[in-house]
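Sample entry (309 residues):
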Amino acid sequence: RTGEYCYKVYHDRDSICDGCLVAKTMEDGKIHSTEKTVLKPDGREARLIVYSTPIYNGNGKLSAVMEMATDITEVKKLQHELTYMGRTIAVMAHRIKNILMGLEGGIFVVETGMEDGDDAMIKKGWGMIQRNVKKVSGIVKDLLYCSKEREMNFELIDPIPVVQNVFELFEGKARKENITLDLDIPVSMPKGKFDPDALHSLLSNMITNAFDACINDATEDKEFHRVCIHSKYEQDGKYIFEIEDNGVGIPGAMGDCVFEDFFSTKGREGTGLGLLVARKIIEEHGGTIIFRSTEGEGTTFRAIFPHNE
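Predicted structure, serialized as tokens:
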């Protein structure tokens, strides 16, 4: 594309970019630099560091500007991974510390119950231990999904039985938390290429988030809390899985951060891994995830999968 303007080649624009480095160098004769995200010929994004350098003629006058760019996409990926690793360690250390405290508390209650011959206290302490062991198990599974250690095991399946299984798994918790759990699915769907365990984990994480949104909702005028699982197959060959809740909703200021690393609305109680797991699973299947939310009214997450055979 020799001879074309850089703003057309890199940004598919018809006019000069805001803050153009070449224009700045032509104006003040100085070297300027910045980082940009541009489109490659194949449509992929690339991260560049761009420099503009003045070129002077034999009379010492500025006659041209040379713009140079270095592709730092891989460097940025490595930077992101190192940052991610550090944040993972910090978040997990804090979370596991809280779980250990819970385990120690459960052990203390069990030992006290054994000393006093109090079966009710023993049962209470054992329940505390079980809950905290389950939390550790959940964290480990989420970390495995967020890492590259687990390869997808694709099978040609009808996803409806997986959805039904997840619904049944959460029915007991819904009754315990006084949440109405509804299921809106067809009898079957066309078979497609899915990793059944990954799909199960995706839906479980999305429903867990929806339950948390209802449990943490302090809105006074709501008569009940509801979570609904919707599934359908669209004519254009897409599988749709939606988890809808009428919980606390996501504040507008947080909307842009939902799919960033460790995003959580639960403060210290949340690891932020749930949506990372969801995003990774969907990306591995070649799909996308979107959401809509109104603070105080609820949230709907929609996972869209292509029909691969």
